[in-house]
Structure formats: C-alpha cells, structure tokens
C-alpha cells in the first residue's frame, strides 16, 4: 500500500469530514465484545478516538507517520505505523476491526486474511467510505463532476473507482453481512470546500507532476456560483459489516 496522504496530512485533518453518530449507533450494538478494537488506516485518528469511548483499548495503525502525528493522544489508544495486510498483532486479539475511507487502497486478499487472523470468534469487521460530495446546485455539481471525472481522471489511482460503486466489487468473505447508508450534511464556504479538494490524492499527484495547484482552475467559477456565504454539501457515506 502506497502512502498517498502524508504530504497533505494537515489539510486532511482539518478539511475532511468526521463520521456521523448514526454510523456508530448502527455498528456498535452488533459487536459482542468491548475489550479491544483495531482501527486500520486510522489517518488522523478520528475513528480511533470515537472507538476509545466504547472499548477498553484501541490499536490504531497507518502507514503515514505524518497522518499519525495529527492524531490526538488518548489514554486508551495506541498508534503505530503498520500496513493493513501484515500487522504485529496476535491472533484472535480483537472484537472489532474498522476501516474508514481506505479499503480501496488495500491488497484485499491479504487484508481479509489478516482480518480473519486477528478477529476473535464472532468478531466484527466494519468498512465504510463516502462517494463524491453532492453540492445541491446543478451548476456546481456539473463543475465538480467535470473536475473529478475528467480533469483529475489521469491522476486518480484505478482503485479510487471502487468508491463510486460503494465497494461492490471488493470481496467481503464474511458472515452476517449488513449494509447501511448515512448522508452527512455540512455547511461550508467556497474557500473551505476548495481546501477540501486539496486533500484529494489526485490533486496532490497533479501538483507534484506539474508544479502548480489544479484547484485554481475552477476557483473563480466555483466561487461565483457558490456565493458569499455557506452552502450545504452532502457526503454519501456507505458502510458494510460482517462477522468471522
């Protein structure tokens, strides 16, 4: 798994959304134990921090040292640098494994094998992500789709497109499968939204190759349509879980 997010770790911590309480309310009652959880690809630790409210201990891993540096220090959370597919954890050591907005970057066969190894009997694996944000305005949504699917297309890793079909093509060899969706609405200014775009791995890749910020190409038009105030944006969060 390549590190695609270290260079924008500070932007990622500030401008990426957190996940809604409804997601955890759907997930946690399905987990039989509350001793140990592993948040894989934890990034800046937002999921690990929430899990720490419910589990005696949380292990939070990521391949990005810069991302981990943004995570809050918490007494019941251990952060460590580790890939998703091979970890230092003992077999049958977790009640829950979570992955938020990162599964599409993994070697799925190796990751699923690792999940089966580290989960306890009847343990739960939960995976979620969110698709292209919806701006609730025809001109803005058209501008965003063009930037996402045309301008940025050569700079997205191919695995990114698994987000568009909510991981439907990624194998999930677990039992008692459940799925859910959670629209997440936020009120954002145009400036905030443009900085969110700068967290995209494709934008970072473009800037590294060409030496300038591609977000500037749509700034004037987007700002004009957006207007001076805040506007509602909606992130379509999707989730699935299963048991070993």
TrEMBL record:
Gene3D superfamilies: Vaccinia Virus protein VP39. Residues 39-125 form the Methyltransferase type domain. GO terms for molecular function: S-adenosylmethionine-dependent methyltransferase activity. This is Methyltransferase domain-containing protein. InterPro entries: Diverse_substrate_MTase (IPR051052), Methyltransf_11 (IPR013216), SAM-dependent_MTases_sf (IPR029063). GO terms for biological process: methylation. Belongs to the methyltransferase superfamily.
């Amino acid at each position: 798994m390549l590190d695609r997010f270290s260079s924008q770790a500070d932007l990622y911590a500030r401008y990426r959304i957190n996940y809604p309480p409804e997601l955890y309310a759907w997930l946690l009652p399905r987990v039989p134990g509350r001793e140990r959880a592993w948040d894989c690809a934890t990034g800046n630790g937002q999921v690990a921090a929430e899990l720490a409210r419910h589990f005696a201990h949380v292990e939070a891993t990521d391949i990005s040292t810069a991302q981990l540096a943004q995570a809050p220090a918490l007494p019941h959370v251990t952060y460590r640098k580790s890939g998703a597919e091979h970890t230092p954890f003992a077999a049958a050591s977790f009640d829950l494994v979570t992955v938020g907005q990162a599964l599409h970057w993994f070697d799925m066969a190796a990751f699923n094998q690792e999940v089966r190894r580290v989960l306890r009997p009847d343990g739960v694996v939960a995976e979620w992500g969110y698709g292209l944000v919806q701006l609730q305005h025809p001109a803005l949504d058209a501008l965003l789709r063009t930037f996402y699917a045309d301008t940025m297309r050569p700079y997205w890793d191919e695995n990114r497109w698994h987000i568009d079909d909510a991981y439907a093509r990624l194998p999930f060899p677990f039992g008692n499968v459940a799925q859910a969706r959670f629209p997440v609405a936020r009120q954002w200014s145009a400036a905030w939204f443009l900085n969110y775009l700068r967290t995209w791995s494709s934008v970072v890749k473009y800037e590294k190759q060409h030496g300038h910020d591609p977000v500037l190409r749509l700034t004037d038009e987007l700002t004009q349509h957006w207007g001076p105030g805040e506007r509602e944006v909606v992130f379509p969060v999707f989730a699935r879980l299963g048991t070993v």
